Amino acid sequence: MNRNFLESKDFWSGLMLIAIGGGALFIARNYQFGSSLRMGPGYFPTVLGGILVMFGVYFAIAGLRSGAEPLKSTWSLRALIILPLSLVLFGLLIDRAGFVPAMLALIVGSAAASAQFKVVEVALFSVLLTAFCVVVFIWMLGLPYELITGIW
Amino acid sequence: MTIRSLLLKTVAALLALTTVAAAQQYPTKPVRLIIPFPPGGSNDVVGRLIASQLSERLGRQIIVDNRSGAGGVVGTELASQAPKDGYTLLVISIAHAVNPWLYDLKGRYDPLKSFTPIAALASGPNVLVVNPGFAANNVQELIALAKKSPGKVGWASAGVGSFQHLGGALFELQAGVNFLHVPFKGGGPAMIDVVAGHNQVMFSSLVQTTPQIQSGKLRALGVGGLKRSPILPKVPTIAEAGVPGYEATNWWGIVAPAGVPQAVVDRLRKEIAVVQTAPVVLEQFAKEGADVLQMSQADFAAYMASEMAKWEKVVKASGMKAE
Amino acid sequence: MDLFNNLIFGFSVALSLQNLFYCFVGVLVGTLIGVLPGIGPLGTIAILLPITYSVSPVAAMIMLAGIYYGAQYGGSTSAILVNLPGETSAVVTCIDGYQMAQQGRAGPALAIAAIGSFFAGTVGTLLIALFGPPLADIALKFGAPEYFALMLMGLVAAAVLAEGDMAKSIAMVVMGLLLGIVGTDVNTGAQRFSFGIFELTDGIGFIVVAVGVFAVGEIINNLGDKQERRVLSTKLSSLFPSRQDLRQSWGPILRGTGLGCFFGVLPGTGPAIASFSSYMLEKKLAKDPDRFGKGAIEGVAGPEAANNADAQCKFIPMLTLGLPASGVMALMLGALTIQGIQPGPQVMTQRPELFWGLIASMWIGNLMLVVLNLPLIGLWVKLLQVPYRLLFPAIMAFSAIGIFSVNNSGFEIHLTALFGVLGFMWMRLGFPLAPMLLGFVLGPLMEEYLRRAMLMSGGDPLVFVTRPISAGFIIVTVLILVVMIVPAVRKRRAVIAD
Fold first, then answer.
1. Less CB within 10 Å around the terminal CB: N or C of chain A?
2. What is the predicted ipTM?
3. To which H or E segment does residue B66 belong?
4. pTM here?
5. 3-state class of B136 per DSSP?
6. A30-39, B54-63, C87-96, C180-189: the lowest-pLDDT one
7. Which of C42, C191, C220, C421 should we substitute to test contact with A (largest number of A Cβ atoms within 10 Å)?
């Protein structure tokens, strides 16, 4: 057994597949399965979830045994958290505060995901890009969004 | 309802309402019209047509906002939560009366209590069509064939709970027959399958089917309205052709979140009444196979309630709601 | 000659100043919305429909059609430049197109995409003019069993997409199939994996998954690099394809066009299937399939030709039968109805100026698109010189607006964020993304057709082999399996023996 399996790509791949496949199996247990000739809504999810779990077990064992390829270590936790969060913020703001605040939040937020974040440059850029998007999307393409909620 | 009586009503409404000064101030900013279906469907076509005309009358832009999902529930729920100031309106259709029986709406909205009815807009019947190679030449023959081999005659619908499904389920219930229900994703693919002969029967919306009927790719056995359609004058109604009392008509209307000021309602009703009978709109409704539908506010509310009761029976009898 | 006269007549209609203008407006708007993800022809045509009320039916149709096929051109641009699939069908172009851009070959990639699309558009247009009605009749021969057998063949061939680790590729196809199941079951109306969230009842949007895993995932991945990342890692090579590029591309363009026309005629195949098929075919035919996924020009030329031919041929069922193959086509039929024209086979004889004028305008529009796109390449490539720290927030902004515009749903934005994280994770674990998207496209269709076929046959599986077209596809599928498995098994044995 490989002692460094926690650093193995295969091991984590296996866990991921088992988690997703197992989750699908668990949820689909309540769906009507039917038979191969009269498939119910649960037939495909159960079969596919089962296949994923099988693949997961295969990879996990491979990872435990040899560990094959190690995970690359150069990745940015900052980007992994901030970038999706800025999208979430956009989704929350656009219906509640309007197009302009949502855009500004998204642009500044995602720019902050980079280590090269420069406040002045990003502030300027976010205003310019937002203005551009207002012209193109709201005025030219006529998308139905309030610029700032309640004011238009 | 004749055009003359429509006009008279319009004039009356106009006279009655010009005195309401408060309503004249509305609207002071753009009005959002939520269409709980994606672009291109019948709700969208009717909604946009009315919106473009209405915004001219109101002097303010009406912004069409498609919020589709879950057969209209997503957009409807959104509208029910909007401020009740008349700046958010919702286009509804027959789906509004059917969704309570298909989806669990508890804690989301009440189709009647959460909304103030504004105005009915239009209605359009369905049409019973079969592949031209199919043995049935009229409704009676179709019923006889379906009774001879229950669960064998292929009936294509636009999906579980769709208008096309409802019309067929009502037919099954009232004619006492049982087709083989084959649901599709949308009316287009279902129609292609019937034209191609893979399935035999469809209860399609009249609007989408007229070209196929006129070119002989589909045979119309009956229309689902109470009267024959001017587009297909030779085709009997399903009711007169063998299923007495059959009526499956899609309808469209506008509602607002419950509690909208009456002055706003009155202003909107007045303008919608004008818009509905504008030549442009009449012409396009005619091309689309739809009829203008005008009702008092109370009648519209009662109509919605009666539609809900009618389709509840059909949904429950057909086992449409999946567990 | 009748066809010749008809075409001359068509051109005389399409070349009128007014119609040329609407054609130009259409393809221009199409290119613009094509570049942007999410905002597609469906929403745009719905918004612009009221404008068409006031113009002649011919001009209206010319403009709307221009938007539709123009979007196919634009879709490849953002795919190649920044790994952002502007349209569903451009997803495949991301794979090798983006790699070419990374190697400083964005110019040739964009140019070959435009040239391939133009060629495919020309062939597609000719096909409609020559064989529209008979082709539409063939399309009607495809029922549920035929479609299922066709999809099965595609899925089996998908294993060809495997890069490196075959097991990971297949696992990802299964993952895509599973994701495609989310939502309402077509056959029963049952909810699956929707967790009581009503926004999920219509399934997860393709563009949500594609933009999430490709664009957002890629950005998270890039930001992990230590030094500032430049899109252009090497110096720009020539803007235009070299003689070798053209030599490598003409075969894929021809084959892609053929595949695109085939899938285009069939109304029951979703988007992206044509381009996926072309990609798989080219990879299989290539002498050195290892280059695929690392910037092979064939992987851009073939799929781009395929998706444009597909888009062009999707008009056949609409124009000759009056049957809508997709939401966009249904909207165009609606536009005709509003103009007072009953769509259907009689349009060809009763309104020849509409039918032939539209066909001629399609070719003119395709020409305009090339003329419009080739000079733009220089401009697009310049965009890549924007520092990455500013470029990626802009990509995020356009992605967010585009996805939001599809359903005006904040929930879908949140889903995109989730798929960004998943995409990053999959990339890091060495899982290829393209097979997942293929599974996602094919899965729901396969399940729908399989279960419908079984429903209609009363549960008799023989229906797939007793119908000739379906039987043909099944035989080919078995052949592919044999051809694929034999060498794979040998290889495995060799590895184990080592």
1. N
2. 0.91
3. strand B62-66
4. 0.81
5. coil
6. A30-39
7. C220
